[in-house]
């Protein structure tokens, strides 16, 4: 494509964009172009500046210096409403839904159609249902958002954007909570919209998606644009090294084969809500068991039940051969079972509090056994955990100031500081960049080396296959089989997952 044709095909042009917060520069002299009807993948580690440049384009943040043009005209939105009216929509990584409102009300919030002086509820329900069907989401538009699982909430965010009739959609980790089937449906919809002339900026840490959906790739590192590629058909190794600025020899740690006695046994347990039925498996000391399955298979519900968070209608959970009672999460904690939840911000952390305060939350019985909380003791306890798990932050630093990877390390540090026997991690690297993922994987392998029984639930099949000694596959709440590492590959897992 000639230089002249590229310029005429460009709908968004970003030139010299710099963003500073006080003395800290988060973007430095970034140039970026988006063309008509393309998917531009924007890659980089957490903190590289991807969300900042997206927020500037979408009117949430104003640049310190630099200019933009949109459809050939100057573009300087002062608010998201300005960008939306121009035809630019942003889907955030962190979902911004209103849990007390229905799905349809969330899809059309801020632009509810009025008919004869009243909100046209039948109209918004009909139009919302249409978008949900396009995404393959079989839920009633009148359902309250708070009653939806994380994956379904993510799809509501996407449906919301699709009703905007935008000419540029910015997707920030749109598939972080989606399984393979839901991701394919989203990609099909993106291809349809591309054919209609819609453009996309697509941010994802799942590099296998980039070759499937993107036309071009731009890579940010430390607030600077370090590479652009006219094709997305690139070796993952090349992209990773551009993102982190150093060679990354391997992603997954070596597995220790020194596995001990059976520690966790689950015998024919059935969910009180019907999410899973008659599930049995075991995990030994030093072993990592992966749990795979498409969204809706019952993975999260299963591990929540084992952790005492959801009721069990039938079946037995044993620790070291002894049945345990699980009527509350504290019962599981007392038996040495900890759960790192899938939504770290909503379920695992208190964001405005410090790292030390978060780590102390479930460990006061160790920090203050007599009931008197000494701030110095809290600080000492937290510093040990911070060093042990390689958290990049100070004990007195607020958690909401940390990157996603370091927030996840704080959740893990909080849980493991209890010295558990069984560690369950639900989506341990959701929304975390490649470099930070490798560090989390090493932490998980380290837990197994210390003799803990480790269970990992993930929508990322490569993650499950790379981390686990064995893989259990759930489908529609039923254990379809457990595969040894030698027999576990993508084909074998997906055959069971779609049974």
From TrEMBL:
Q: Which GO terms describe its molecular function?
A: ATP binding; ATP hydrolysis activity
Q: How does the protein associate with the membrane?
A: Peripheral membrane protein
Question: What start-end ranges are recorded for coiled-coil regions in this protein?
Answer: none
> One Gene Ontology cellular component annotation?
plasma membrane
ABC transporter domain mapped to chain residues = 12-247, 261-495
- State the Pfam families in the record: ABC_tran
Tell me the domain of life.
Answer: Bacteria
Localisation? Cell membrane
| Key words, A-Z | ATP-binding, Cell membrane, Membrane, Nucleotide-binding, Repeat, Sugar transport, Translocase, Transport
Provide the primary localization: membrane
| Family, as annotated | Belongs to the ABC transporter superfamily.
Write down what this protein is called: Sugar ABC transporter
Please tell me the species this chain comes from.
Answer: Pleomorphomonas carboxyditropha
């Amino acid at each position: 494509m000639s230089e002249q044709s590229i310029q005429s095909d460009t709908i968004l042009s970003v030139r010299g964009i710099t963003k500073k917060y006080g003395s800290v520069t988060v973007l430095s002299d970034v140039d970026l172009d988006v063309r008509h009807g393309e998917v531009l993948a924007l890659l980089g580690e957490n903190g590289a500046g991807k969300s900042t440049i997206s927020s500037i384009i979408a009117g949430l943040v104003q640049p310190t210096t630099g200019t933009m043009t949109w459809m050939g005209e100057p573009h300087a939105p002062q608010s998201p409403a300005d960008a939306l009216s121009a035809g630019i929509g942003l889907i955030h990584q962190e979902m911004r839904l209103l849990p007390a409102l229905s799905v349809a009300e969330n899809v059309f919030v801020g632009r509810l159609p009025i008919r004869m002086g009243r909100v046209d509820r039948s109209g918004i329900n009909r139009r919302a249902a249409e978008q949900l069907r396009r995404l393959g989401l079989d839920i009633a538009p009148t359902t309250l958002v708070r009653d939806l699982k994380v994956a379904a909430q993510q799809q509501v965010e996407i449906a919301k954007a699709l009703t905007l009739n935008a000419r540029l959609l910015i997707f920030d980790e749109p598939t972080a909570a989606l399984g393979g089937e839901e991701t394919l449906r989203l990609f099909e919809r993106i291809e349809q919209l591309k054919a209609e002339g819609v453009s996309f900026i697509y941010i994802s840490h799942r590099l296998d998606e980039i070759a499937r959906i993107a036309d071009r790739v731009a890579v940010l590192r430390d607030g600077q644009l370090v590479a652009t590629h006219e094709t997305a058909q690139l070796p993952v190794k090349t992209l990773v090294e551009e993102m982190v600025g150093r060679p990354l020899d391997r992603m997954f740690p070596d597995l220790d084969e020194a596995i001990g006695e059976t520690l966790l046994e689950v015998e024919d347990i059935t969910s009180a809500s019907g999410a899973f039925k008659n599930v049995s498996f075991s995990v030994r000391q030093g072993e990592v068991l992966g749990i795979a399955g498409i969204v809706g298979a019952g993975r999260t519900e299963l591990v929540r039940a084992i952790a005492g968070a959801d009721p069990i209608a039938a079946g037995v959970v044993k620790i070291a051969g002894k049945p345990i009672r699980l009527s509350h999460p504290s019962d599981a904690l007392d038996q040495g079972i900890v759960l790192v939840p899938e939504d770290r911000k909503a379920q695992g952390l208190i964001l405005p509090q410090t790292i030390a305060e978060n780590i102390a939350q479930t460990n006061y019985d160790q920090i203050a056994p007599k009931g008197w909380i000494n701030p110095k003791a809290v600080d000492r306890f937290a510093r040990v955990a911070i060093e042990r798990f390689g958290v990049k932050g100070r004990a007195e630093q607020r958690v909401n100031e940390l990157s996603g990877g370091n927030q996840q390390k704080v959740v893990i540090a909080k849980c493991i500081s209890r010295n558990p026997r069984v560690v369950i991690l639900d989506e341990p690297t959701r929304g975390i960049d490649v470099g930070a993922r490798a560090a989390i994987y090493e932490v998980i392998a380290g837990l197994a080396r210390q003799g803990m029984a480790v269970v990992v639930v993930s929508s990322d099949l490569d993650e499950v296959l790379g981390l686990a000694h064995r893989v259990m596959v759930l489908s529609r709440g039923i254990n379809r089989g457990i595969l040894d590492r030698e027999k576990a590959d993508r084909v074998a897992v997906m055959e069971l997952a779609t049974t």
